[in-house]
Amino acid sequence: MLNNRFFTRLKNTDPDCFKKLVPISGDVRLPKLGLKPEDEQTLIDNVSIVYHGAATVKFTEPLPIAMNTNFEGTKKLLELSQRMKKIEVFVYISTAFAHTQKQVLIETIYPPPAKVEDVYKFIEDYGDDKQATLKFIHGQPNTYTFTKSLSEAYLSQHHGNVPTVIIRPSVVCAAIKEPLKGWLENWYGGTPLLMNASEGWLRLARGHYNNRIDVIPVDFVTNLSIIAAAKAKRTNDVQVFNSTTTADNPVTWSDYNKYFIKEMVRHRKNDLPYPELSFIESKTLLAIATLFMQTIPAHVLDLWLKLTGKEPRYVKILAQVILLRDAYEHFTSQNWIMRSDRTRELHSSLSPEDREEFQCDPIQINWPEYLRDYSRGVIKYLKPRKMY
Q1: To the nearest 5 percent, what fractions of the chain are helix, strand and coil?
Q2: DSSP string covering 154-186, please?
Q3: What is the dihedral of CA 136, 55, 233, 351, to 10 degrees?
Q4: DSSP 150
Q5: DSSP letters of 357-387?
Q6: What is the rounded CA–CA span in Å between residue 4 and residue 144?
Q7: Using CA atoms, how far apart are residues 163 and 98, in angstroms rounded to an integer?
Q8: Residue 349 burial by Cβ neighbours in a 10 Å radius (0-12, 13-18, 19+)
Q9: What is the pLDDT along the chain (388 residues), one digit of tens a residue?
Q10: Residue 68: CA count within 13 A, CB half-sphere
Q11: Residue 109 backbone zone (phi > 0: left; psi -120 to 50: alpha; other: beta)
Q12: 54, 186, 205, 360 — which has fewest CB within 10 A?
């Protein structure tokens, strides 16, 4: 990991910087976090700030696995933090989509989606039954957001004397400035969906052109996490900060068409001609339009490939593209407002120099410039995908 190119500038300015790192092996899914006794004691004796971002982010994760990783992992790490002799703050990286039953999300703790004992009773009775799980987590789109919401409520009720901060980022995307403009290192978040549209594979989705899509640069989330930890107050209340954009500096799907997708086409990254993502609000009309505009043409193209002695591929690729689209439907079809008042207030309390160094105010994002840099970053920093 330390050989990643984004550390190049740091190595050049401070060659000995990595001597400060003490690697410790662990796993939030294991008993006692998978820590060796001596490593656990090292943490208890020396750590003052805990950042907890380990999670399974799969929308389709079976509930028993999501609970063990996201909820139990959080519970175990909080318990360890409560034993740390120098603990100053516990920072939990949640998600702004943990409470999508709210049309307007504010920076507060919401009631849990279920009682923990009821969750484990359900798992005992139904295991990883997908249909039963969807009914049980009613109001939540998937097990990821469900377990994140449950974890937030648990921290609020059980953090004890440990000052606790919850950071709620929306869809985390490419860096706006640090370590490099447009930098990203994986295909998580909304990037695969956007690339499917940019390459011409995805042409239809449920929603509206003018729906706000809440995305945030990864360095904004990092900067907010640093500031919130440094400014954490000793209080009985958990401090919540949303790392979001829709309330103060919204960007829409039409903006993505205009800047991200067109930039990809300019670099000739489209597999199919004339890529553009169109939106349909009706689920029924979307299914009909998909059939005639994508599914039938895919079968025709595969037939042509067979007749010319080539391996058919369009139907197979399209099936995976539609599967991903449908997994994101809850997010593309909604139009939330996610407020970031406390985040903006926290950022404005910094000195002018620190405000520039630790940017996290959504007002600072220039969307046309950012979306173009984001698309260039996908081309420059990510390995080409194998199309399913």
Answers
A1: 50, 10, 40
A2: HHHHH-TTS-EEEEEE-EEE--SSSSSTT---S
A3: -130
A4: H
A5: HT---GGG--HHHHHHHHHHHHHHHSPPPP-
A6: 28
A7: 21
A8: exposed
A9: 777 777 888 888 888 888 889 999 999 999 999 999 999 999 999 999 999 999 999 999 999 999 999 999 999 999 999 999 999 999 999 999 999 999 999 999 999 999 999 999 999 999 999 999 999 998 899 999 999 999 999 999 999 999 999 999 999 999 999 998 999 988 888 899 999 999 889 999 999 999 999 999 999 999 999 999 999 887 778 999 999 999 999 999 999 989 998 898 888 766 777 788 999 999 999 999 999 999 999 999 999 999 999 999 999 999 999 999 999 998 899 999 999 999 999 999 999 999 999 999 999 999 999 999 999 999 998 877 665 5
A10: 14
A11: beta
A12: 186
Q: What is the 3-state secondary structure (H, E, C) of 91-119?
A: EEECCHHHHCCCCEECCCCCCCCCCHHHH
Give dist(CA 380, CA 183) in Å, integer. Answer: 8
State pLDDT tens for residues 184-205: 988 888 899 999 999 889 999 9
Q: Which stretches of the chain are assigned E, i.e. beta strand?
A: 49-52, 89-93, 104-105, 164-169, 171-173, 204-206, 215-217, 239-243, 278-280, 337-338
pTM: predicted TM-score of the whole model, two decimal places: 0.92
Residue 124: helix, strand or coil by DSSP? helix
User: How do 278-280 and 215-217 pair as beta strands?
Assistant: unpaired
Alpha-carbon torsion (292, 293, 298, 304), positive or negative: positive
CA distances (Å), 339 to each of 165, 213, 253, in order? 17, 13, 19
